[in-house]
Specification:
With 338 residues, this protein is α/β, with parallel strands linked by helices. 45% of the residues lie in helices and 19% in strands. The protein is built from 11 helices and 10 strands. A 5-stranded mixed sheet has the order 3-2-1-4-5, with helices on both faces. A 5-stranded mixed sheet has the order 8-7-6-9-10, with helices on both faces. Helix 2 packs parallel to helix 3 and helix 6 packs across helix 8. The longest helix is centred in the C-terminal third of the chain and has 27 residues. It is globular and about 65 Å long.
Length: 338
């Protein structure tokens, strides 16, 4: 089954063709990073306009690279939530038009389910059930994937997402957008104990997390140093911040492995590219005899291939849409309105 998959939830326009949920025939991406870099972050209106400019050409490019015609497409999939609403609308409207013109099924895919499915591409033998740590710019959660379309949220951030915190601290430090990657690079090999930064404590749900206090502490430290003329050890601060984020995530993953009995843990989302988090999870899982699944860096960020991978299983589960499909800025991974 050849699925034409569209992703436009933020600042990457992507169109991919995925066969049977596992084989990527092509994955075409138009990045807007350089455009938004001058603003220090994504400008929603500009992102939406650039999606409109790129999406039609990307679809033709995807077909050409895969050496397929429109008649070879069996279904059209699209990210319908969550994301920047204007950006998501561009993808949804294009996918609806394509599905209608081709006379093919329209498959709505939740963006975070797509990130999880990136692991199906990287690891063709990976099958549910397993645990998944989702760490992205807008979401941080621990999910029990009981089946391809059946999931249970064990814990989530109660405020800011880990990725948003990385980007905000990096921006205040004067690092270029996207800040998370720049901060990770600066932190490598530096002293991660030089600056004392807080770790969130478990509340009623021991799997829940909080990052707002950590972000505030880091920003206050930076602003105080500026006010008193103190020179900061930037690499050490970046390393200390990365360690604090990892120390918030990894113990909860360990507890989830121990309490659920799962021996497979996947990592998904753009922040899954962070070297400290990847190393700490690998080390912790190794002690527990668990297997870790991490997509390559090319599949950690937003891409169309992950949407096409999840779409295949949504289709098999009967999750298709009609022309009334709408876009949503926020929606639970379980499909519930927020």
């Amino acid at each position: 089954m050849n699925i034409l998959a569209v992703e436009s939830s933020c600042d990457e326009t992507a169109v991919a063709i995925v066969r049977d949920g596992r084989e990527v025939l092509t994955d075409c991406i138009a990045s807007q990073v350089e455009l938004h870099r001058i603003y220090g972050g994504v400008v929603p209106e500009i992102a939406s306009r650039k999606h409109i400019e790129a999406i039609y050409g990307l679809a033709d490019q995807a077909l050409e690279q895969a050496k397929l015609t429109r008649a070879d497409i069996d279904a059209v999939a699209v990210t319908y939530a969550p994301g920047l609403i204007g950006a998501v609308l561009v993808g949804v409207n294009f996918a609806k038009a394509a599905a209608l013109a081709l006379g093919k099924p329209l498959i709505p895919v939740h963006h975070i389910r797509g990130h999880i499915a990136a692991n199906y591409i990287a690891y063709p033998d990976l099958k549910p059930p397993f645990l998944c740590l989702v760490v992205s710019g807008g979401h941080t959660m621990i999910i029990e994937v009981t089946d391809y379309t059946e999931m249970r949220i064990l814990g989530t951030t109660l405020d800011d997402a880990a990725g948003e915190c990385f980007d905000k601290v990096a921006r205040v430090l004067g690092m270029p957008y996207p800040g998370g990657a720049a901060l990770d690079k600066a932190a490598r090999g530096a002293d991660d104990t030089k600056y004392a930064l807080p770790r969130s404590k478990p509340g009623e749900n021991p799997y829940n997390m909080s990052f707002s206090g950590l972000k505030t502490a880091a920003l206050n430290l930076i602003h105080h140093a500026e006010q008193v003329g103190e020179e900061l050890d930037i690499p050490a601060l970046c390393a200390s911040f990365s360690a604090a984020v990892s120390d918030t995530l990894v113990p909860r993953v360990v507890q989830a492995i121990q309490e659920t009995g799962h021996k497979k843990i996947a990592v998904a989302g753009g922040v899954a590219a962070n070297s400290r988090i990847r190393a700490d999870i690998m080390a912790a899982a190794d002690k527990l005899g668990a297997t870790v699944y991490m997509p390559p860096l090319s599949l950690c960020g937003d891409n169309g291939a992950m949407i096409g991978a999840q779409a295949y299983y949504e289709y098999l589960a009967g999750n298709v849409a009609d022309m009334s499909l709408n876009a949503y800025a926020t929606k639970s991974i379980l499909g519930e309105a927020l």
